[in-house]
Amino acid sequence: MSKTFKKLLMSEPGLSFLYHAIRGFESTYRLTVQNERPWMDRIASGGSVVICCWHQQFFAAIRHFKNYSHLKPPLMISRHSDGTLVAGIAIRTGWDIVRGSSSSGGAQALDSMVAKLKERRIAAHVVDGPRGPAGRIKAGLIRLAQLGNAAIAPFYIAADRAWYFNSWDRFMVPKPFSRVTLWYGDPIELSPITSPEDFERERLRIENIMLPGLIHG
Questions:
Q1: CATH of the structural domain 3-213, one choice from 3.40.1130.10, 3.30.530.20, 3.90.1170.30, 3.30.870.10
Q2: Among residues 31, 43, 44, which one has the least CA distance to residue 177?
Q3: Can you give the pTM of this predicted structure?
């Protein structure tokens, strides 16, 4: 991608065009959403939830996630230039973007995410982003859920026809008019964490729950 084209794409008109193009593209999907109610009911009854996914699979959820805009879910996105592109799309979807990652501004971003989670009772997280390794849940998800006293509700995407990029996570884009399923796992409560060993145990437990949903395309 040339610098000129990238600059144009990251401009306000460019991001607006890209967002509407994605929505139009995803409107062709024959989308089925499964098991959404458990985490929604938890929020409605006063609980808190972190919805999360593998980096590989977030693209196909963009159009549907406009349905959550009234909740203003906070989402952490890296300060890298690629993150600026994703942030521009997420903002137009109605999400509240916090910039930062484990490599830059992570502590401050996590504090902001926790505060917003406590206020709104919902947050979102990409568990192995922004650069992997694929299939390894990073510490941020567990810290966010622990500090925000929230359950973890993973979601997964599957499609009968999809492209897989030659990237670190085999990034998936379902093809037009494909059958796409977005399904949520039941909310997962963290066990008490009082030591580094407890923390790693919980990280591995959530990772093992989510790994079967990772696609090796």
A1: 3.40.1130.10
A2: 31
A3: 0.92
